[in-house]
Design a protein that fits this description.
- It is a single chain.
- The chain has one domain: YehU-like (Arc Repressor Mutant, subunit A), CATH 1.10.10.610.
- 43% of the residues lie in helices and 20% in strands.
- It contains three helices and three strands.
- Helix 1 packs across helix 2.
- The protein is globular and about 35 Å long.
Length: 81
């Protein structure tokens, strides 16, 4: 499988901002029971990436990025593959 966890420390501020904004713009993205402003949501996603409670994943096959919570079962399957 060609999926990699990317350290957010390796991205420039502008690149990280673009990845987060693209992730947030997807239809169906759920930020919880209480709707937050885009600015608040952006800060929350960035904070989770910085503290390691969420991770940035790149898929070589589709050339796409995604953000997962660090404990997501999908990531656990990737680590055992």
């Amino acid at each position: 499988m060609s999926i990699h966890i990317i350290s957010v420390n390796k991205l420039s501020s502008n690149s990280l901002k673009g990845v987060i904004e693209e992730f947030m713009s997807r239809n169906g993205t759920d930020y919880g029971a209480i709707e937050a402003s885009l600015e608040t949501s952006f800060i929350q996603v960035k904070s989770r990436l910085k503290d390691g409670s969420a991770v940035l994943v790149f898929d070589d096959e589709t050339e796409t990025t995604n953000i997962f919570l660090a404990g997501d079962p999908i990531l656990k399957r990737l680590n055992t593959a």
